[in-house]
Amino acid sequence: MGAPEALHNTENMIAVDADTYAKISAYYSSKQKFTGGMVVRERLRTKSYEEQRESGLKTLRQFGVIP
């Protein structure tokens, strides 16, 4: 399975309540200091599968979805 398929599959999903989902979505649509003028979502597209996955896990921790 290639990187896009590995990221976008049902085994790589977690249930998140609507309020938390909205906050995470807003974060991915925002510009942050580390994104060089891009929104987070755009910046992640330039990263490897491993970096995207690690960033996703960090974000889930940041928003209290996973410990």
Walk me through the topology:
Layout: H1 3-7, H2 18-28, H3 40-45, H4 49-62
Characterise the protein shown here.
The protein has helices at residues 3-7, 18-28, 40-45, 49-62. It is globular. Helix content is 54%, strand content 0%. The chain has four helices and no strands. With 67 residues, it is mainly alpha-helical. The chain starts with a helix and ends in a 5-residue tail after the last helix. The chain has one domain (16-62).
Mean pLDDT: 90
Stretches where pLDDT falls below 50 for ≥5 residues?
A: none
Strand proportion, as a percent range, falls in: under 5%
- Rg over CA atoms: 12 Å
- Alpha-beta classification: mainly alpha
Q: What distance separates the N and C termini?
A: 27 Å
Q: How does the major sheet shape up?
A: none
- How many structural domains in the coordinates? 1
Query: How helix-rich are the residues, as a percent range?
Result: 40-55%
| Rough outline | globular
Total count of strands:
0
What count of helical segments does DSSP give? 4
- Report the order of strands and helices: HHHH
